[in-house]
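User: Let's play a game. I give you a shape written as tokens, and you guess the letters that built it. Ready? Here's round one.
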């Protein structure tokens, strides 16, 4: 079992955590914890907008997301013996939603997630000429798969265990 070296209370903003999160890598951001080379760790995180997106049927929260409070990061985590400029190899052994006892709740990752498209008026993206408005689909997690009330009759499966019936070509509306 990995050591939990950074915990997150999903009911609080990253700014209000016991060890606050940050939104940029910078030398002035102090190390939150130190780990040993080879140590297996678990880092709890919060969704990148710091839970500004809600489990609802409106895309207004995607349209109006405050980007000055986005890109929330856990850490930084220092490695014993490492010096600035050292090249480190990090193996990600697992990636997944929030773990018990916080696996259900209002924050993305607590039993649900979303797919969003930014509006042209709020950062947009490279397809804003085709999709100028904000859009959102909520996904409910079911073990290794997810379904959406906004995209009926589609079940997305984890890439870790992708069965044949969950190939991207089988998703409705996926044109090639």
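Assistant: Ready! My guess for every position:
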């Amino acid at each position: 079992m990995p050591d939990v070296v950074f915990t997150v209370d999903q009911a609080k903003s990253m700014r209000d955590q016991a060890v606050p999160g940050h939104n940029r890598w910078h030398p002035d951001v102090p190390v939150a914890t130190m780990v040993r080379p080879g140590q297996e760790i678990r880092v709890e995180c919060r969704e990148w907008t710091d839970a500004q997106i809600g489990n609802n049927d409106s895309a207004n929260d995607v349209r109006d997301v405050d980007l000055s409070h986005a890109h929330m990061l856990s850490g930084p985590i220092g490695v014993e013996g490492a010096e600035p400029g050292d090249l480190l190899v990090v193996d990600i052994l697992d990636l997944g939603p929030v773990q018990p006892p916080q696996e259900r709740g209002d924050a993305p990752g607590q039993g649900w997630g979303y797919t969003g498209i930014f509006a042209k008026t709020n950062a947009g993206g490279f397809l804003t000429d085709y999709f100028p408005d904000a859009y959102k689909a909520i996904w409910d997690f079911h073990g290794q798969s997810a379904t959406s009330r906004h995209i009926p009759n589609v079940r997305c499966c984890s890439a870790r265990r992708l069965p044949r019936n969950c190939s991207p070509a089988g998703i409705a509306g996926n044109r090639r």
